């Protein structure tokens, strides 16, 4: 037994594990924390004294004179209810006019006004960015909410004094409406704002995220086309659709719009596209990056595993590459070849984001903890275990673990799992390191540990200079120990986009706040409320018009609940 223990501990990496503290909590040192609020942002233009009367007229059933204004919440009763009625647009191809692609969408500016004008969130909405420091010496920034990041402060400096930034967060993700046959899918587009605290944004019950469009999921793009030509046309269809949906943000971002808050204060707001939340295939689609390359930097796809990010991609450079290829190409295939030489997909001739003010689409692409880390990194780590032990042995080790609080007990191991969800990947990551001790070499254990450290540190709800340093140390330890996987024949290279994406996490946290501000997991949850529940309420024939009507009714009920809460709150305050 003593010899066994000696051999066992020889396989554990030498040295103590890095002491990573819990996420820095600003509330534990509030007396020392310093906040530098932007001096010119968030000016109140005037007070709208009629805001509460409009809400009362909207839902109360009578105006101040007692005359009946509305008897129900039917369509077209007023501006507020009519905002929820999506309208449709049609796209068609010149050589295939019979097949039309219908988009159901509504004005994103109305969505912005609704989110900022919700009285339930009036005391929580933030109009002024700030730089938060751990102490008066200002040597360590604190990053948590989006308004503590560098991006908001930088954009605010470009706007006229007194204006406000409304950081628009867009998320798109195609989803299956049913697990049965029929290939029923929906392509929702979600919009929320960085002005709202992240704790409010990620709760469906708070109604802080609005569905602004259902994109077309039709695959009819021309029967006579080749597979490559169909792929190109589908990519351009996506960009043309997003242009129709988001085009109102261009002028509003440049000139600003007056928005009345739930407390009656009127601000001049500039809605700016800040973050685009998507998984890797859609990140490439949105940024026009060649699949297999990084959508944020120009590193060559053969050097993605070297541990060094390339020069930043810029929206201006990508547009110039597309424009030059379009001007010098004689065919679609020639256009694609010229684009791919510069790591551009070659499937899009007119990107939807070209004219958006104060926006760089490559910078707007944010880390995706769910798909990049759990469905990417952890998935690879589990797969690599099969090279140092058999599936049966790994399952036996997993089954032998004692049940304990906070840990899932996989009584049948992992080999029988199918369609593994993100939650299951999280549970697997918690016990993975202990399952390979005694079988994997110490350097492989160190490699695994550094990647798991990175995953957990990247999800801190608050970061400062020290915690971002721990994140970088974990990344460096991974690159220092990954060679063992090549020596064991597990990998030939590490040119994997999801592994390379870890290079950009620290920079994105500095720009937009912590990763829970823009995780795709939040929007995956909204599929239930905005797509799947609506589909179940239809007769399963020509679903989208019925889904938009159902959604309109649900939002009106939610707005009425908000009115009731605000009414009771104001009445209680008045009676005091």
TrEMBL record:
Region span, Disordered:
11-30
Please, which domain of life does this record's source organism belong to? Answer: Eukaryota
What InterPro entries does the record tag this protein with? Answer: Plavaka
Q: Give the protein's recorded name.
A: Uncharacterized protein
Q: Which organism is it from?
A: Suillus discolor
């Amino acid at each position: 037994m003593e010899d066994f223990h000696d051999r066992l501990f020889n396989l554990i990496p030498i040295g103590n594990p890095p002491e990573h503290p819990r996420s820095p909590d600003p509330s534990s040192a509030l007396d020392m924390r310093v906040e530098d609020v932007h001096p010119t942002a968030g000016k109140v233009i005037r007070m709208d004294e009629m805001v509460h009367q409009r809400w009362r007229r909207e839902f109360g059933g009578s105006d101040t004179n007692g005359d009946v204004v509305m008897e129900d919440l039917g369509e077209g009763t007023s501006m507020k209810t009519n905002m929820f009625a999506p309208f449709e647009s049609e796209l068609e191809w010149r050589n295939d006019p019979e097949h039309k692609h219908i988009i159901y969408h509504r004005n994103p500016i109305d969505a912005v006004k609704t989110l900022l004008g919700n009285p339930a969130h009036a005391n929580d909405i933030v109009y002024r960015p700030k730089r938060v420091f751990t102490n008066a010496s200002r040597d360590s920034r604190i990053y948590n909410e989006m308004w503590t990041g560098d991006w908001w402060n930088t954009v605010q400096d470009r706007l006229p004094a007194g204006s406000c930034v409304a950081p628009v967060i867009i998320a798109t993700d195609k989803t299956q409406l049913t697990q049965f046959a029929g290939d029923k899918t929906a392509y929702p587009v979600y919009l929320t704002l960085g002005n709202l605290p992240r704790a409010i944004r990620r709760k469906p019950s708070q109604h802080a995220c609005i569905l602004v469009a259902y994109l077309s999921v039709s695959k009819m793009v021309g029967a006579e086309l080749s597979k490559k030509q169909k792929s190109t046309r589908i990519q351009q269809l996506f960009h043309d659709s997003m242009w129709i949906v988001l085009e109102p943000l261009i002028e509003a971002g440049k000139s600003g719009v007056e928005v009345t808050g739930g407390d009656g204060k009127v601000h001049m707001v500039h809605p700016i596209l800040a973050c685009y939340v998507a998984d890797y295939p859609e990140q490439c689609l949105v940024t026009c990056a060649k699949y297999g390359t990084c959508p944020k930097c120009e590193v060559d796809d053969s050097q993605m595993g070297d541990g060094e990010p390339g020069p930043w991609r810029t929206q201006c450079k990508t547009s110039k590459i597309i424009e030059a290829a379009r001007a010098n190409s004689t065919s679609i295939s020639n256009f694609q070849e010229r684009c791919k030489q510069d790591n551009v997909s070659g499937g899009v001739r007119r990107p939807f984001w070209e004219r958006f003010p104060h926006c760089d689409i490559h910078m707007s692409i944010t880390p995706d903890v769910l798909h990049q880390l759990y469905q990417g990194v952890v998935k690879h780590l589990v797969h690599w275990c099969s090279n140092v032990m058999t599936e049966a042995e790994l399952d036996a080790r997993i089954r032998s673990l004692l049940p304990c609080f906070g840990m899932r007990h996989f009584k049948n191991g992992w080999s029988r799992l199918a369609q593994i969800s993100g939650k299951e990947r999280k549970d697997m990551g918690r016990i993975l390191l202990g399952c390979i001790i005694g079988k994997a070499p110490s350097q492989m254990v160190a490699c695994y540990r550094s990647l798991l450290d990175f995953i957990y540190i990247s999800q801190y709800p608050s970061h400062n200079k020290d915690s971002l340093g721990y994140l970088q140390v974990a990344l460096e330890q991974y690159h220092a120990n990954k060679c063992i996987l090549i020596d064991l024949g597990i990998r030939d290279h590490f040119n994997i986009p999801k592994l390379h994406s870890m290079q950009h996490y620290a920079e994105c946290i500095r720009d937009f706040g912590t990763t829970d501000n823009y995780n795709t997991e939040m929007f995956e949850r909204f599929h239930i409320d905005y797509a799947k529940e609506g589909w179940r309420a239809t007769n399963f024939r020509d679903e989208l018009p019925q889904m938009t009507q159902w959604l309109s009714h649900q939002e009106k009920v939610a707005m009425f609940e908000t009115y009731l809460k605000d009414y009771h709150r104001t009445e209680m305050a008045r009676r005091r």
